[in-house]
Amino acid sequence: MTLVEGKLHDGDLTIDADVVVVGSGAGGAVVAAELAEAGQSVVILEEGPYVSPERYGRMRPSENLRHLWRDAGLTFAIGLGDTPVINVMMGQCVGGSSVLTGGVCFRIPDSVMNEWVTEHGLTDINPKRMEPVFEEIERRIHVEEVPPEMRSRSTQHFLNGLTALGMDWAPMRRNTQGCNGCGRCNFGCPHGAKRSVDVTYLPRALAAGARLYSDCRVDRVVARSGRAAGVVGRLLGGPERKPRGKLGVRARRVVVAAGAYASPLLLMQSGVGRRSGQVGRNLTLHPGFRVMARFDDPVEGWKGALQSAYSDALEGDRITLTSLFIPPGALAGTLPGIGVAHQAVAQAIPHMAIFGGMIHDEGGGRVQTLFDRPYMTYRMAPKDRAAVPILMRRMAEAFFAGGAREVYLPVLGLGAVDADRLRSIDLEHVPASVLESGSQHPLGTCRMGVSPNGSVVDAFGQAWDLPELYVADGSILPTSLGVNPQLSIMSMALRIAWHLREKRLPAS
Ligand SMILES: Cc1cc2nc3c(=O)[nH]c(=O)nc-3n(C[C@H](O)[C@H](O)[C@H](O)COP(=O)(O)OP(=O)(O)OC[C@H]3O[C@@H](n4cnc5c(N)ncnc54)[C@H](O)[C@@H]3O)c2cc1C
Ligand code: SF4
Fold first, then answer.
1. Closest residue CA from atom 47 of ligand 1
2. Is the domain of 303 the same as that of 356?
3. In 3-state terms, what secondary structure has residue 254?
């Protein structure tokens, strides 16, 4: 098994391989394992550090953010027009964002695949053809339904409210095995119970002979004789993770899986995809909003699976409701008030329940650069923006129906709201500048399609204008999903990997 920490390597690094995979997250790990097991020599390059489960399991949240998250969790999409600033969270470590998930696993909804078939011409990505792909991923990462006894009281209170209002909900499925409900999932599972790719696909890839290099940032894809022939970049080191030695990999095939934020940047820097005019465009985020509620009885929402149930009762408004919880220390920082006033609210944390709502959005965002600095912008489509007050009101009503005393809406400057006040608040006219929104699901910036004019990669992830360059991560999804995307991304990556297993490697 070869895992080299680039930060410990002195000097430059030059490597030869059949296939180089850029990024070790949900998409990259699947491709690497499948191709290594098919006998190809695979090198995986990861910009982030390697942090073992034993280490990340012991880290306090602030330390964890610094070591495992891109920009310590503070990457933002600038809101254009009537759109809030959106905090976009991503992993930057061996295992990528997969390490940080709540474990929630959804297949690509049939309605979404049908849209891909009819409106994007992706006729092979249909429920029947994808069934064995989903099954294989679910088996490998052990997707199971969260049992009722793992449900937190926070989630149960909200579900009681949904039931009282006649709204449907269902238990979630997660990639776990032996979960004890300690609720730390978003900082990496300390018990190996969450089957993220750092404990599933990457060990498989390494066991089959793949070489994984952490602390290696790829800057550019190299082309030779009209096809992709490797990558160049830098090794990162020191406390500031500054570039040190040079990195070069010669390969017969390049698979970019750096995620929906970094993959388009890499393609732009390499001059790939210009003809489509779509690189970095069509960014979707599933903008998310959190509603909290205070109950008279203790809730202790940190006890139990972080995410255990969801509701699609508001699907008609393009809203999905999903359970979540935030560790009390981090939660305190999101509560209103300062000093003594804040102390009073924070003391109520043991009585707080939380639920999340996200919008099945249209592609209103873009990743680009200014003076070599990357940034994201996002403009909410009018119908997505119109869903925000609906989301807040219906979630608050569900909490009140479940017995909440007061709710905290994701509106800066607004304190606790009781049921009477909720009826009188003009949520439809809350300005975007005071809305608090977050996203863990950037998608779509190198979208897949059937024509080089409207898409960046073809139906098997190959760049239209550079043969042997493949993209296999969240960036290729042609639309948002309305559900958490890891299983969908892994399935799309597996479909590409199965294709590449059969496709002859070009001569070196
Ligand atoms: C906090 C959090 C919670 C989430 N919870 C869930 C959940 O419960 N269920 C769910 O379905 N989804 C969840 N997601 C989303 C899910 O994790 C991602 O959609 C998925 O992992 C994305 O896969 P990817 O392969 O596109 O990118 P990633 O998994 O992010 O992998 C990309 C990797 O590429 C590396 N990289 C980037 N640029 C370079 C470069 N230039 N050179 C080398 N390496 C590079 C990055 O460091 C990263 O490790 C969550 C995400 C977060 C952040
Ligand atoms: S709740 Fe389960 S999956 Fe999440 S960190 Fe704890 S043991 Fe791991």
1. 92
2. yes
3. strand
